[in-house]
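Example 9 (inverse folding). The structure is encoded as follows.
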């Protein structure tokens, strides 16, 4: 028969393995994903936990992230390689086993943009025009919108002069000072952050436009300029050279010189007498040319007339004959001047003669008188200096018919004197007589008389000149009369 039943035992069959997982986000083939990336999937039936695999290959030969203990339906991934396609899949699991693997989805990560490259102004560029346009290359890996950060400074150790982190294009403009050095750099950014700055580029802006030169000499409207003269102007700011225009007319059509010069002067050596010239200057540098200076005019001197020389005068029988040397070639005539030394009158013009004439007879003299003559040459433009002066006495003669009883020389009169003085002297006998003037040092200045004379009373005049015709200084002088048997000295004073 049947024995008794055993104890009753109970058992439960194993749970059915989970259903396959359906992925949710990021959507398949997503791009421009900023980090960190969160992957999400739908909950699978009967799932006790999930296994997430992330790989850089669609075959999952290797994985960059694996987690088999996930109980939630999302995971915040750790930092992944930027600009890389990542593949992911999820498997559900429970005690009954593993579900089928989900589909393989992929997404592409992004990162900060790669370095851009500076273009212009180039590193160490010089003479960069102002305002300055800056250009750089577009950053690579720009799946998402990119912004550029621009910095400019006067040196790399101080705060930037310009900072702009909102640039959407690869160019910007800045108004800077001329003739200065600057440094600039750029970096790119996106939603993932800012990339590294480029290295510094240095450049120097163009020198400022040159200033307008200021003319110096010959002075404006100068006359009597030399035929060989020097045009001079002030150094202009920022000028590297100068453009000189030098002409015979103010319109600068009859040009003498139209040239660039490195100096602030120009020597003229082709000028003509009594001619007007016009000149102006502008400064130049790499930035360009300034405006021309004001136009200045000058006129060269007239051709000089050399003074007649070797003037001599010979009194004879109520007349005085003058002779001189013609030292000029451009006179139209000569003018003869005469002064009566016994009167306060100045030298007066008594007559003129034509060109190349070198003699004149003065028929208007009086006797006894002492006269002083000089001659000048002249033309329509100018006159010469005077010739040497020549003084004559129309007669060194007896002042009375009565013969002196003894040798004598009187005190000059006037004394002091200016410009001339008279000295009377007497000779009781015929013979050689000399009257000479000496300075206070005993040096002979002028011989007034040195000749044989008949007995009688005479006078002689001294006009304050030496034997060479040059004037002597004011002061005390001595005059001495010497004969074969008589010597006497007296003092006179000349005041100018």
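The amino acid assigned to each position is listed next.
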């Amino acid at each position: 028969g049947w024995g008794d039943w055993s104890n009753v035992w109970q058992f439960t069959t194993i749970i059915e393995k989970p259903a396959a997982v359906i992925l949710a986000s990021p959507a398949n083939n997503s791009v421009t994903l900023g980090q960190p990336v969160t992957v999400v999937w739908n909950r699978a039936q009967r799932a006790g936990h999930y296994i997430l695999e992330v790989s850089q290959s669609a075959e999952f030969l290797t994985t960059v992230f694996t987690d088999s203990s996930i109980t939630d339906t999302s995971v915040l991934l750790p930092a992944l390689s930027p600009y890389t396609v990542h593949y992911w899949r999820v498997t559900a699991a429970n005690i009954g086993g593993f579900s089928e693997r989900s589909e393989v989805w992929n997404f592409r990560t992004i990162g900060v943009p790669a370095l851009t490259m500076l273009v212009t102004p180039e590193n160490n560029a010089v003479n960069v025009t102002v305002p300055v346009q800056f250009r750089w290359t577009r950053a690579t890996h720009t799946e998402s919108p990119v912004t550029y950060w621009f910095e400019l400074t006067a040196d790399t150790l101080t705060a930037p002069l310009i900072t702009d982190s909102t640039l959407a294009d690869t160019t910007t403009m800045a108004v800077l000072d001329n003739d200065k050095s600057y440094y600039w750099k750029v970096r790119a950014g996106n939603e993932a952050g800012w990339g590294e700055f480029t290295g510094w580029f240095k450049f120097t802006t163009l020198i400022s436009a040159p200033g307008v030169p200021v003319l110096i000499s010959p002075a404006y409207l100068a006359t009597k300029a030399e035929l060989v003269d020097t045009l001079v102007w002030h150094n202009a700011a920022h000028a590297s050279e100068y453009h000189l225009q030098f002409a015979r007319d103010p319109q600068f059509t009859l040009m003498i010189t139209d040239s660039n010069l490195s100096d602030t002067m120009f020597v003229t050596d082709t000028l003509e007498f009594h001619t007007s010239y016009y000149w102006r200057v502008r400064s130049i540098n790499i930035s360009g040319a300034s405006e021309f200076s004001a136009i200045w005019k000058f006129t060269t001197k007239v051709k000089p007339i050399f003074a007649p020389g070797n003037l001599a005068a010979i009194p004879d029988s109520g007349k005085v004959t003058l002779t001189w040397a013609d030292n000029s070639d451009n006179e139209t005539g000569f003018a003869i001047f005469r002064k009566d030394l016994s009167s306060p009158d100045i030298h007066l013009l008594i007559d003129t003669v034509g060109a190349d004439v070198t003699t004149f007879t003065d028929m208007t003299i009086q006797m006894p008188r002492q006269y002083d003559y000089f001659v000048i040459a002249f033309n329509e433009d100018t006159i010469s200096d005077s010739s040497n002066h020549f003084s004559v006495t129309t007669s060194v003669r007896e002042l009375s018919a009565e013969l002196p009883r003894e040798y004598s020389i009187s005190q000059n009169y006037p004394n002091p004197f200016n410009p001339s003085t008279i000295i009377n002297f007497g000779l009781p006998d015929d013979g050689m007589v000399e009257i000479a003037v000496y300075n206070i040092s005993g040096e002979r200045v002028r011989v007034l008389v040195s000749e044989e004379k008949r007995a009688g009373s005479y006078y002689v005049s001294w006009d304050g000149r030496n034997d060479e015709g040059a004037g002597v200084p004011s002061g005390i002088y001595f005059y001495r009369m010497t004969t074969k048997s008589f010597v006497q000295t007296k003092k006179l004073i000349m005041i100018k």
